[in-house]
Design goal:
This protein is α+β, with helices and mostly antiparallel strands. It has a single domain (about 35-165), classed as 2-enoyl-CoA Hydratase, Chain A, domain 1, CATH 3.90.226.10. The chain contains 5 helices and 4 strands, in the order αααβββαβα. The protein has helices spanning about 15-40, 45-50, 55-65, 120-135, 150-165, and strands at about 70-75, 90-95, 100-105, 140. The chain has a 4-stranded mixed sheet, with helices on both faces. α4 runs parallel beside α5.
Length: about 170
């Protein structure tokens, strides 16, 4: 067995402490962005959705996947740095349903009515590709207002591929 490589990292040095603090700040920012995604469209839209006796997107997925089985969400921060909603108003991931590994794609209607943006189309296409390449069933949980009309020029052509792939 070989010895681990020598390191020049000194956890007692001021530079180490400075870099560690910078990383902690970045991780805090990342968690804050992830929390925004988990909050859906915000308090008002979540309340309106609940007033209609509807489940939130992640609640629907939790009920779909087998009890006590994991759900691996893919690209929760997709669209970061663009004018698309963070996460693309869509949740995609891998889960086990009735003992079978599946790809799951679900619109989040609390975010811009679950409408399709360039980010959500990219996420949907990637989910379809993962399902195809890995020969996995694809489950779509659709509750959407259709295309985000101000972005229709960027949505309709690539969005058509999502239907072609089905």
């Amino acid at each position: 067995m070989t010895a681990p490589p020598a390191t020049r990292i000194d956890p007692r040095s001021p530079a180490y402490a400075e870099h560690r603090q910078a990383m902690q700040r970045r991780l805090h920012q990342l968690r804050a962005e992830h929390d925004k995604v988990l909050a859906g469209g915000g308090v008002a839209y979540v309340a309106r959705h609940r007033s209609r006796h509807k489940l939130l997107v992640r609640e629907r997925i939790d009920l779909l996947v087998d009890r006590d089985s994991p759900f691996l969400e893919l690209s929760p921060l997709a669209g970061w740095g663009t004018d698309d909603p963070l996460g693309g108003a869509m949740v995609t991931g891998l889960g086990i349903v009735a003992g079978v590994e599946c790809v799951i794609s679900a619109n989040d209607p609390t975010v811009k009515g679950g409408t399709s943006s360039p980010t959500s189309i990219a996420k949907a296409l990637r989910a379809q590709e993962i399902a195809r390449v890995n020969r996995l069933p694809l489950i779509n949980l659709t509750e959407s207002g259709g295309a985000d009309l101000p972005k229709q020029a960027d949505v309709f052509v690539p969005g058509g591929a999502t239907f072609k792939n089905l």
